[in-house]
Structure formats: C-alpha cells, structure tokens
Amino acid sequence: MSAATASVRRRRRLTAGGVLITALYLLPVYWMLATSLKESSDIFATPPQLFPSPISLTSYTETVVNHAGIGRGLLNSTVIAAGTTVVTLAVAVPAAYALARLRVRFVALLILLFLVVQMVPAVNLALPMFVIFSRADLVNSYAGLILANCSLAIPLAITILRPYFLSVPGEVIEAAKIDGCTTWTAFLRVALPVSVPGLITVAVISFLGAWGEFVFGLALASDEGMQPITVVLAGLTNSFGTRWNDLMAVSVVVALPIIVVFVFLQRYIVGGLTAGATKS
User: Fold this and answer.
1) 146 and 238 share a domain?
2) Distance of alpha carbon 22 from alpha carbon 19, whole angstroms
3) Could you tell me if residue 86 is inside a domain?
4) In this protein, which residues make up the domain named ABC transmembrane type-1 (predicted)?
C-alpha cells in the first residue's frame, strides 16, 4: 500500500470520526426542534417518533407568539445583552490598550486577577450584588442587570484584547505620534483598526454570555416584567407538569440568535481567540 493511499484512508477515517462527533453534538438540538413540532400526545409515544408526524406549529403560535411573557422576556434579554456588549467594549477596549501600551505597574498581577474572576461562579456574586444594588435602587432595572453581566464580561474582554494591542509594533505608534497624533488619536487610527477581529470576538462573547445568563436574572429581577428570557423559560416548568413541546418551542427561539451568530461570525470568533492567544 502506497503512502498516498494510506494518507487518503487516514483522512477518510478522520472525516468519518468528525461527522460522527458532530452528529452526536447536534442530536440534542435536533431532538429539541423535533419535540417542538409534535403534539403533546406524540411526545411520549413508544417507540419514540424520530420525525414529527404530523408536524404541529401549535406550540409556536400559542406559546411563543401569543404568550405575553415570552415576548417581554425576549425584549428584556435583547436590551440586556446589547447593553452589556456596548458597556463592555466601551470599558475594555481603552483599558486593554492602556495595559498593553502604557507603563502600568503590576500588569501581570492585574491580568492574573482578571483570570481569577472568570473562575468565580455567578451564584457567588449574585447575593452581594443584590444587597448592593438594593441600596442603589438598581434591582429590577436594566442598568443593574447590565452592570452585573459586565462584571464578568469586562475582565474576559480585557484579557482577550490586550494581546492584540501588544501585537501593534511600538514603532508604528511612535511614528503616528511624530506625525502629530496624540496617544488617543494613535489608538483610534492605528491600534484600533488592527484589532477589529478581537473586537468582534469580544462583542460576540459578551452578547451571548449576557443572552444566556440565568443567575443574575433570577436574583436581580424579581419583577416578571424585567426578567430575561432564560428566567421566563425556567418558569415554564412547574410541579404540576411540563408541556415539553411548548418548552422546546421557546428553547428553539432562544437558541436561534446563538446559532445565527456562530454561523455568520464563526470565522471571526475562532480567528480572534486563536490570534489573541498566540500574540505576546
């Protein structure tokens, strides 16, 4: 057997393995979609129906469209996720540039603290935040939920963006200053355009992290009108039973933004994370 034939067979085995692993990962997603299109009587059929027949859109029309709480939850999650993304970028971008380019003492210690923050579970932060936000009248408000999400998003964003700004040659920054740029304009005209992949990565991670956040929404939004969709989704399960087709229909709608973002921006996300990780 020639080396070329062995290489082809090896590639085929790797491809088959990749397809199998992908199928295993996508099986829960397919089952969620299939369940959302079934009638209640077909969900627990024996043997299980692999394909919904007949296809029913009742769960989408009655629960997703006509349920006022679902629409409000989606709106709340959109506002919170968008606000978290904007605030995170506004704070993390100049902070990361300062840690990369300015002579700041204890930079390594600060980066270590940012990494440690990522290991703190959100549930450990929820109670102290509730006490502080109650005194500041930020409970049951968009501002409070956005600030809570930013407490985890900003350290991660700084950690990702700093290597991008370090990759910009110092000679280029100095040349821009010689041409009349201040530190701020050199940052805007030179360093920022080079770091666009990192900015997209941070924006996506911040948005999706806030979109899927549950603990802060549960602890800081007792008012049903302010609860994000993740908390509303959990409310569809109760001690009197769960309508699984309705629950899966809402889950499909909640997962759609995540799927769309990854389909269209996966090249920037993967490239942004790997590039930022290899620059020093």
Assistant:
1) yes
2) 5
3) yes
4) 74-265
Tokens coding 187: 């940052």
Cβ-based neighbour number of residue 246 at 10 Å: 21
Does residue 1 lie in a domain region? no
User: What's phi and psi for 236, nearest 5 deg?
Assistant: -75, -15
* pLDDT, tens only, 202-237: 999 999 999 999 999 999 998 888 999 999 988 887
Report if residue 274 sits inside a domain. yes
Q: What are phi and psi of 238, to 5 degrees?
A: -150, 175
**C-beta of residue 232 within 8 angstroms of C-beta of residue 69:** yes
Residue with tokens 């924006």: 203
- 243 φ/ψ angles, rounded to the nearest 5 degrees: -85, 95
User: C-alpha distances in angstroms, 221 versus 22, 98, 140, 143, 150?
Assistant: 37, 35, 4, 11, 16
Query: Into how many domains does the chain fold?
Result: 2
Q: Domain containing 26: what range? A: 16-56
Q: How far apart are CA 208 and CA 150, in angstroms?
A: 12
Q: Which residue has the tokens 């002579």?
A: 103
C-alpha–C-alpha distance, residues 85 and 142, integer Å: 13
What is the pTM (predicted TM-score) of this model? 0.85
Instruction: Name which of 264, 136, 154, 255 is nearest 206 in CA terms.
Output: 154
CB 216 within 8 A of CB 148: yes
The verdict on 36 and 109 lying in the same domain is: no
pLDDT band at 48 (very low <50, low <70, confident <90, very high): confident
Q: What is the CATH number of the domain that holds 208?
A: 1.10.3720.10
